[in-house]
Amino acid sequence: MSIDRLKNDLRLTLILMFGVLTITGITPFVIYRFASGQWAAGLLDIAIQAGIGAAVLYAWRGGDVDRAGLLVAVFCSTGCVAVGQVMGLPGALWLYPVLLANFLLAARSAAAILSVLTVALVSATDALGGAINTGTFVVTAAMVAGFAYIFSYRTEEQRRLLEGVAAMDPLTGALNRRGLDDELDAAMAEAMRTGSPVGLAVLDLDGFKQVNDENGHEAGDAVLLEFAGLVRELTRKSDRFFRLGGDEFALLVPGADADAMSRIAQAVRHAVQNRIAGNGQPVTVSIGATIMLPGDTPGSWLHRADTAMYRAKREGSNRVVVSCPPPAGEGQR
Ligand SMILES: Nc1nc2c(ncn2[C@@H]2O[C@H](COP(=O)(O)OP(=O)(O)OP(=O)(O)O)[C@@H](O)[C@H]2O)c(=O)[nH]1
Questions:
Q1: Ligand 1 pocket at CB < 6 A
Q2: SS3 at position 14
Q3: pTM
Q4: Where in the sequence of the chain do the CATH 3.30.70.270 domains occur?
């Protein structure tokens, strides 16, 4: 477990921060309660600290952070109900930070259920000091929970949006290099689970520098856009299309064997040659394709497709090389 994990895992960071804050925040109360002879409340506080500490340790040691977050939220909520029963209003005031913590630490639906239960149980105690106090307590707690719900919803939406933007090439709308390894991992796992083949192609435009140099960067951008549109048109929604950088792209095709990859690659090559013109100049593409083989890693698989693409370039460009060793077999235009 490295400190880097905290940078990448917001839920883990929140669990740790909240755990440390709660445990240190409760400690003075524990001392006070034991010093003033409130043994039940003191022991309760220690039990809450121990539960939260165990859940934090579980998350820090690489456990499921969603489960750890839910556990911390459950411990805090249970503790809040118990402290409210034992101490009345002063104990029940812990409900406000607990409601916020529920929505920060647990999944929204679980947090909502937990919060409703906690508010109901805390407000059911006789120790709040009369109907007005209880009514005020319930309304303010409901408002805090409502705001926390909306905040959690909006944050989740924005996080999802940002993840989508971060994974996408802004020019072509293709997925970018960032998520490729994850996608290859997932495709390999799925192929191994189902036993169906999965193909990968690397596609690189030929002489693209010349399009840029002679017609300008904007004309180059237009060609990249046209190319991406064409690949999308010729492939299925379930296929994944990536821009690896510059004029180099990758296509991941679940369910495709070597023959299917050859057909798809040839269809793309043919369409690019016939339908894309970079301001008068013909544009072509070289494609290296392969399928996943037993023992492949995402790196070895991509490398094989890349090597096939370079071979297509070396052999004159505007062609397809399908590499599927062993046994060695290559199909070309
Ligand atoms: N218009 C445009 N050009 C880009 C972009 N990204 C990279 N390039 C250009 O793409 C060109 C890629 O050049 P090369 O890798 O030599 O590609 P090529 O000319 O197709 O050469 P071969 O692949 O060997 O056929 C360079 O001129 C880059 O400046 C982009 O987003 N838009």
A1: 171, 204-209, 212, 217, 220-221, 224, 246-247, 313
A2: helix
A3: 0.68
A4: 175-332
